[in-house]
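Q: I have 346 residues here and want to know how they pack in 3D. Can you give me a structure?
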Amino acid sequence: MVVAEVVAMTFQLGDSYDVVVVGGGAAGLNGALMLARSRRSVVVVDAGSPRNAPAGGVHGLLARDGMPPAELVELGRAEVRRYGGHVVPGEVDAVTRDGGGFAVSLVDGRTVRARRLLVTTGLVDELPDVPGLRERWGRDVVHCAYCHGWEVRDQAIGVLASGPMAVHQALMFRQLSADVTFFAHDRQLTAEQAEQLAARGVDVVAGEVASLEIAGDRVVGVRLADGRTVGREVVAVASRMVARAGLLTALGLRPVPHPSGMGEHVPADATGRTEVPGVWVAGNVTDLSAQVGAAAAAGAAAGAQINADLIAEETRLAVEAYRSPFSAESEARVAELVAGDRRHGL
């Protein structure tokens, strides 16, 4: 029996944890690591559909540059488990209030309860409806100069205008290649933008893009609606990024437009705390542009804040019990917390 199966067997209906982490990427695993190291009972529920799955490697992450995303995740899972945390496969369907905590319902019918919730479900990349983009996504169709730029340096790069940051994206890729073409598609350049592109030697092609040209399992060009084809080896396109947050609907927490105009996110303060008490977010679900390192750091910060929040609650209840030794309600609550610690070997 493999380790994942053994761990999954411990995750039974009715289990209760200090914290449930929804999403097992860099943010979720680092948050869980901080909590587990603080002797909190924590479970990470991971649907296994990371945004960066098509990528060949994680880049810009110190000491892990170029590591395949799946390998990084496996290392993170092992570290969480080393400190007593659980990582289990599953997809969360909904989260509802359950007394002072939360009931987390999975699509397979299982339910787990938590005192606090950390949501690190990431985002979905919505691409323009241009044939070829989705099929080549993460290979020779890229979006981030910091994530993929070095790997496509000095190649013939086409930038497909798809959002408010398109010109900025073209200028970033111009830093990496002298051969950059900007496809205006359905966008109208301002005079200032046209001047910037011209000054940096970026060719501008007007007209709607119809599809990508693919040959031999690689991009070879961009075809326009008027029949023209412009040879390219790489296409950069900015996706519309939308937070995966449907599971929070029952709590009244929904994605809102991001100030950048690049998509929708779940707003939170600098620690990841949302407007719903007891719910934190970290990673791309709230920070659309966060790379792996930034997402992991945000998860760690959120984990620390959640631990601090739990300490404050436990201390308040302990003080109430200390001041009122004959308060049945306070004594029962403290006894419940102590019993929970014992159940998890603390």
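Q: Anything worth noting?
A: Residues 1-11 have pLDDT under 50 and may be disordered. The longest strand covers residues 111-119.
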